[in-house]
Amino acid sequence: MPNSTVVTIFIVEDNAWYGEILEYRLSQNPDYQLRRFTTVQACLDNLGEKPDVITLDYSLPDGRGDQALRQIKERLPEVAVIVISGQEDVRTAIALLHQGAYDYLVKDEETLDRLWNSVGNLQKQLLLRRENVRLREQIGQKYDPQRAILGESDQIKQLFTLIDKAGRANISVSLSGETGTGKELVAKAIHFRSDRRDGPFVAVNVAAIPGELLESELFGHEKGAFTGAINRRIGRFEEANKGTLFLDEISELDLSLQAKLLRVLQEREVVRVGGNQRIAFDARLMVATHRDLSKEVQEGRFREDLYYRLLGLPIVLPPLRARGHDILLLANSFLRDFCRQNSMAACSISAEAQHLLLQYHFPGNVRELKAVVELAAVLAESDTIRPQDLSLRGERPNQPPLIVPGSDESLRAQTAAIVQRYLQTYNGNISEVAARLQIGKSTIYRMLQNKDIHLP
Ligand SMILES: Nc1ncnc2c1ncn2[C@@H]1O[C@H](COP(=O)(O)OP(=O)(O)OP(=O)(O)O)[C@@H](O)[C@H]1O
């Protein structure tokens, strides 16, 4: 069954005429296996058939959509429920999405197309999931994140060789490269190629944790070790037992913690803050930094003995601007994924925009490229991305920089700002805004639910 392309869909609709229309539209895909019910109870009675998708009329004779949704989800948490309502009600939509509905559609002239797209997207996700399960079963191992590293340039080919070597040898690995070049991605790839792949991959960004909390984050603490230590907590070293511990931005570790880390690595034991028991750990260490660690040593900010202990196999990630046509390969891949995930028409990049991307210096590297391309897909007024849709720093001096390096949040904030502007212009008319931006109404409802935007 996991390999099958069939999607089982229940249509729950008491209006016979409308039910017929929905069934007719969906029946145009021969892979959709359809069943129709007119009451919540009849739907519940047949959940044993394990439908993949349920389209649920909000007002059924024996129950409202939210109650029905709860009952369905209690019994079949995996099923995707698309609620179809007679009238648009933002509050209800938000509540339903919050309750786990996959989508919320309003009965209007576009419902059939939206339903078709929504179910189409679900089918793609479902098939991917099934394929994934099948492959895992077939090769008897977990998904290989090395496949997630895209690139055909010589630099990336060399990187694959190093990942392979690092996967086979159980030595420390130190990754360096500018922000957003893929250091964490590579660390994960090495972990999943190593014989520790069945153990955990634990990542800690040293720079993101306040100094006073870092020691307990890494090594754990005993109950009452300090104000606020209400319970005992194991640290990341213990958590990574039998797996890999990835310490990002290692150069930000202060000198006193550097001394503690060195001792832990020498003795292969940790002592929780406020405790005295020595706890052995078995984790492979990988570290990353965007700084030149040897320079940090020279300038006295990083201990030399720790540096040599951590260095292991050094891997340097090239900046994106040095990867030639990989830029376009990555851009097209990010664009395809983004359009698919957001039910947008597939976009392409015009020759002029491609030229611009190839010329740009990408200080935020792959992370920046991803954000630029996704934002361009939102801003583009047709299905082709043109140079004016690309928010490249320094390209348009009159505009504030749209993408902040190192921040995945920036795209979200920018998208929200655009949607908010449109909502303002179109007096909060969600259908109008969705149509103009070519995004699904459910995307807007989700943004409202997350309080990224608000109704004017
Ligand atoms: N070669 C690649 N193929 C596909 N995606 C990539 C590639 N390199 C990086 N990415 C994506 O770019 C983003 C940034 O990657 P990652 O977090 O690994 O970078 P980093 O070097 O660890 O960044 P930082 O130094 O800021 O922590 C992630 O979304 C990652 O999946």
TrEMBL record:
GO molecular function: ATP binding; DNA binding
Keywords linked to the UniProt accession: ATP-binding, DNA-binding, Nucleotide-binding, Phosphoprotein, Transcription, Transcription regulation
Modified residues (4-aspartylphosphate): D57
Pfam families referenced in this protein's UniProt entry, alphabetically: AAA_lid_14, Response_reg, Sigma54_activat
Annotated GO biological process: phosphorelay signal transduction system; regulation of DNA-templated transcription
PROSITE patterns according to UniProt: RESPONSE_REGULATORY, SIGMA54_INTERACT_2, SIGMA54_INTERACT_3, SIGMA54_INTERACT_4
InterPro entries linked: AAA+_ATPase, AAA_lid_NorR, CheY-like_superfamily, Homeodomain-like_sf, P-loop_NTPase, Sig_transdc_resp-reg_receiver, Sigma_54_int, Sigma_54_int_dom_ATP-bd_2
Domain Sigma-54 factor interaction: 149-378
Signal peptide start and end residues: none
Response regulatory domain mapped to chain residues: 8-122
Parts of the chain that traverse the membrane: none
UniProt xrefs under PANTHER family: TRANSCRIPTIONAL REGULATORY PROTEIN
Entry protein name: Sigma-54 dependent transcriptional regulator
